[in-house]
Amino acid sequence: MYRPIITAVSFLLIPQVPFTFAIPLDTSPPLEKAIVPVQPIPTYIPPSPPIKAPVTKIFSSDGNGFENLHVRSNGHILATTAFPSALLFDIDPFHRTGVLLAPDVFYTLGKVRNGTGFSIVSVDMRPFAVYPNGTVCTPPIINEIGTARDGLAMNGMTHLRRNDGFVLITDSLVSGVWKFDINNGKYELIIKDASMTRPANRTEFAAFGINGLRLRPNATSAGPAKHITSNVACDDFALDPRGIIAYVASPRNALIRLDTRTGVQLVVAGTFNESSSDILSASSAHFGAGYHGRGSVYVTTNGGAFVGAPKGSQGVSRVDVEGFVERGYDNW
Question: What global pTM score does this model have?
Answer without folding.
Answer: 0.76
